[in-house]
């Protein structure tokens, strides 16, 4: 635990120093290839940083926040795009550091508040999600009493609620310290009534925005003059899901140190193909037919969960991520208990000396 804290502090210094350099050149170096060459060493540094950690929680979170999101933000920054280039984020070093190192994005304008399709049930509050996370973690401790598929459903819930709590807490801290509004990261994905709704409007929204800028838009621009507008959109969509799959493979490598089996990439490619088919069907019927929410929501979530069982979780379970997570929870509890015991002992000793 002490070694992980030391590595975390080193990471904090390296990431902050890298982003400070980027902040200093944001206006003095023109956007383009030269700025890209200047930033490229930091891109590779951010990819390397998660390999230093040994605990799966930090391997996964640092791999996602720094190895994936922050590195892609730097690439976009080199060409004058992405979260680091908006006026709200680049107006001060504190905001620039927060946006560069955390899974947050400051909007240039006030984000819309209302949704046209809220779904058949009400969204859950932050406290309710925290409560469900605790209950789900407790339930997983009795996994031997559940059907294997039920256990995988609990894992789905743990991953979602854990991300919601982690990112929600980081967002709340940034809002309190910087006094800014942030774009949402999730928008109640369990209310999705289509794959387009799930991937485009509700799940992992900042990652979707980054992938659109870094993969979808360039691919579509490069191919539209060759294959036409609609095929170019399909090719760009497929490339976007392929890159997402590859980055998930990288995060799995950070956590498991095992050679990729490409199941996760196949998961995202499958969803990319199905999303393209769904959009083609919608375009064909022209909005004349739409399933009610009580039917479309279970179908959508059921498809996401079922394909996760098939392609997303096998590699996750292969390096025993769930077992290691609970071992680390126990180790953290023992570490905190030891530190508290030492503090109490020192307090009693000081009190005795005073008397």
UniProtKB/TrEMBL annotation:
It is found in: Membrane. It comes from the Eukaryota. Residues 184-269 form the Wax synthase domain. Keywords: Acyltransferase, Lipid metabolism, Membrane, Transferase, Transmembrane, Transmembrane helix. The chain crosses the membrane at residues 32-50, 62-80, 121-140, 152-174, 232-255, 262-281, 293-313. It is a multi-pass membrane protein. Belongs to the wax synthase family. PANTHER family: ACYL-COA--STEROL O-ACYLTRANSFERASE 1 (PTHR31595:SF46), LONG-CHAIN-ALCOHOL O-FATTY-ACYLTRANSFERASE 3-RELATED (PTHR31595). This is Wax synthase domain-containing protein.
């Amino acid at each position: 635990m002490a070694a992980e804290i030391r590595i975390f502090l080193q990471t904090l210094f390296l990431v902050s120093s890298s982003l400070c350099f980027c902040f200093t050149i944001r206006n003095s170096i023109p956007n383009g290839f030269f700025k890209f060459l200047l930033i490229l060493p930091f891109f590779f540094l951010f990819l390397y940083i998660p390999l230093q950690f040994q605990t799966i929680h930090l391997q996964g979170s640092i791999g996602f926040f720094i190895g994936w999101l922050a590195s892609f933000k730097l690439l976009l920054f080199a060409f004058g795009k992405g979260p680091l280039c908006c006026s709200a984020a680049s107006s001060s070093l504190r905001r620039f550091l927060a946006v560069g190192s955390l899974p947050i994005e400051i909007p240039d304008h006030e984000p819309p508040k209302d949704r046209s399709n809220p779904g058949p049930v009400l969204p859950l509050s932050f406290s309710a999600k925290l409560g469900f996370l605790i209950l789900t973690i407790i339930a997983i401790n009795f996994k031997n009493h559940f059907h294997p598929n039920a256990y995988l459903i609990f894992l789905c819930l743990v991953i979602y609620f854990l991300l919601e709590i982690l990112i929600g807490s980081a967002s709340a801290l940034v809002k309190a310290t910087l006094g800014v509004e942030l774009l949402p990261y999730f928008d109640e994905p369990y209310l999705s009534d289509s794959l387009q709704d799930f991937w485009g409007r509700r799940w992992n929204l900042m990652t979707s925005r980054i992938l659109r800028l870094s993969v979808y838009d360039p691919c579509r621009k490069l191919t539209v003059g060759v294959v036409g507008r609609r095929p170019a959109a399909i090719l760009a969509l497929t490339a976007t899901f392929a890159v997402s799959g590859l980055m998930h493979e990288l995060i799995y490598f950070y956590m498991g140190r095992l050679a990729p089996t490409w199941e996760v990439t196949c998961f995202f490619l499958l969803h990319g193909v199905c999303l393209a088919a769904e959009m083609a069907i919608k375009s064909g019927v022209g909005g004349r037919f739409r399933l009610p929410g009580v039917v479309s929501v279970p179908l959508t979530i059921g498809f996401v969960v079922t394909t996760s069982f098939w392609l997303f979780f096998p590699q996750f379970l292969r390096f025993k991520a769930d077992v290691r997570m609970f071992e680390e929870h126990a180790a953290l509890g023992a570490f905190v208990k030891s530190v508290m015991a030492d503090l109490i002992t020192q307090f009693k000793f000081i009190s005795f000396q005073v008397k």
